[in-house]
Design a protein that fits this description.
This protein has 450 residues and is an alpha+beta fold. Among the domains are: 65 residues, GMP Synthetase, Chain A, domain 3, CATH 3.30.300; 121 residues, Sandwich (Immunoglobulin-like), CATH 2.60.40; 96 residues, Fusion Protein Consisting Of Minor Coat Protein, Glycine Rich Linker, Tola, And A His Tag, Chain: A, Domain 2. 20% of the residues lie in helices and 33% in strands. The protein contains 9 helices and 25 strands. The strands form 5 sheets. Strands 2, 3, 12, 14, 15, 16, 17, 19 and 20 form a 9-stranded mixed β-sheet that branches. Strand 8, helix 5 and strand 9 form a beta-alpha-beta unit. 28% of the residues are buried.
């Protein structure tokens, strides 16, 4: 039987559609390894058990599944997950006694017990470890280790940390500066990955140029300009990859953070878009030489084109400083305008590192639940709030984007005024002013009955 592995990664995903001739609907991301449509298990019986345990042991009886670690939850119950159709409950200690209690509380025997030992880590243990890891990560100064960490989260029995470059030195630095635990596993490429793929710099009137032909080998980012000189709109996103020429004449992938927000940019005919690609010099120690930037675009006719722009890195810093911008043919895109320079008031929609509430999204939701007054809600309601997290981490300019009950708007906005400082959003190594969207969920007051 195939095991459905559960991941709870502390990353935030976004969906954004922008017209290039324009925040995203924000959601907390939980990643799953999904079975195929033909193999979707019937877990309905297990969810009935989870619902019964939630009502008996959870802090909020109306919140299904949130009972592990609750003060009302017995100490012997440390986790739960599904193995196909079967609900598995993680138990420490006397499993026979635990099964009897859980059968009585849930009114069912349709679950399996997994006995916890010193070598098997439970959901509760992993959650506590993740909370501590998040705390230490937030307190860690900016540097090579932080830049190298792409994402981290829990699988069934371990915490998995994904590096941009998963080297022995990176693992040792993580253990020394953040956490040394047998519950942690590491992933990510350790050796260079050969990639001799090529693309085109021009097709159907669509062109891709590096803003500068040469950058210093210490540059944190390189920028590129996509020009749409075709007769139809094109769609592009945030995903890209970079290759470099090795000493053997072969091309290899430059390790970068491959986690990207889900975005669709529409570039109308005669329009352009500027793209900034991070080079991660603190992680890669980039050498002088030839590099290639790859970016995929889609035509309205659904044809996909892999665009490629070649550029160079150099250790001749005077040469890099004197580098001139790539001349843009005026006939390619008649109304091409250079992107305006940013100032202190510039607000970004999306950046490479989005703002983060201390402790991540789970901590933000907990903060809202703790501080929210529910006396005005007669049923479940939602207010969608947008804020700007400024360069210093302050939550500013709160506005209501959408509301199911306008009488709750003032209370939702009050929550923003109570917030501590966030971790600011970052682009190309610098703090930025960034918009952020989150829901405020209201629940009706629980009325006692005689």
């Amino acid at each position: 039987m195939k095991t459905v592995r559960f991941y709870c990664f502390w990353v935030i995903g976004f969906l954004l559609v922008v017209s290039c001739t324009g925040k995203p609907a924000q959601r907390e991301t939980t990643a799953f390894e999904q079975p195929s449509q033909e193999q979707i298990p019937d877990q309905s019986e297990g969810w009935k058990i989870i619902e019964a345990l939630s009502k008996a042991y959870g802090d909020d009886p109306s919140s299904i599944g949130d009972f592990i670690g609750s003060p009302r939850c017995p100490d012997f119950l440390e986790g739960r997950y599904f193995d196909g159709n079967t609900l598995v409950l993680q138990v420490r200690g006397d499993t026979l006694r635990a099964r009897k209690i859980l059968e009585e509380v849930s009114g069912s025997k349709a679950f399996r017990i997994e006995m916890m030992t010193d070598s098997i880590f439970s959901e509760k243990q992993l959650k506590d470890l993740l909370d501590e890891l998040n705390r230490r990560y937030n307190a860690l100064p900016e540097g090579k280790l932080k830049a190298n960490m792409m994402m981290w989260g829990s699988t069934l029995h371990f915490i998995e940390v994904t590096f941009i470059r998963n080297t022995p030195e990176a693992r040792a630095e993580f253990s020394r500066l953040l956490m040394d635990s047998p519950a942690i596993r590491f992933s990510g490429p350790e050796e260079p990955i050969r990639n001799n793929v090529t693309g085109v710099s021009e097709a159907h009137g669509i062109s891709l140029y590096p803003e500068y032909i040469v950058y210093a080998d210490t540059a944190s980012a390189a920028s590129f300009i996509l020009l749409n000189g075709s007769n139809e709109a094109i769609t592009c996103g945030e995903h890209y990859f970079i290759t470099y020429e090795g000493k053997d004449g072969q091309w290899y992938e430059l390790p970068i953070n491959t986690f990207a927000v889900d975005i669709a940019y529409y570039v109308a005919p005669g329009s352009s878009r500027q793209f900034v690609a991070r080079l991660y010099p603190e992680v890669n120690s980039n050498a002088s030489g030839r590099y290639r930037f790859f970016y995929e675009v889609s035509l309205e006719s659904r044809e996909n084109i892999r665009m490629m722009a070649e550029f160079r890195l150099t250790n001749n810093y005077e040469k890099a400083k004197r580098a001139e911008k790539t001349p843009i043919p005026k006939t390619t895109v008649k109304n091409y305008v250079e992107a305006p320079k940013e100032d202190e008031q510039t607000v970004y929609q999306v950046v490479e590192e989005m703002p983060e509430f201390p402790g991540g999204m789970p901590a933000l939701m907990k903060f809202i639940r703790k501080n929210l007054r529910h006396d005005k809600a007669e049923k479940k309601e939602r207010v969608i709030i947008q804020i700007v997290v400024d360069k210093k981490g302050n939550a500013t300019n709160p506005v209501v984007l959408r509301s199911t009950n306008p009488t709750l708007n003032e209370e939702a906005l009050r929550i923003v005024s109570l917030m501590p400082k966030w971790k600011p959003g970052r682009q190309a190594g610098n703090n930025r002013n960034v918009k952020f969207v989150f829901p405020v969920a209201f629940k009706p007051s629980v009325q006692s009955t005689n």
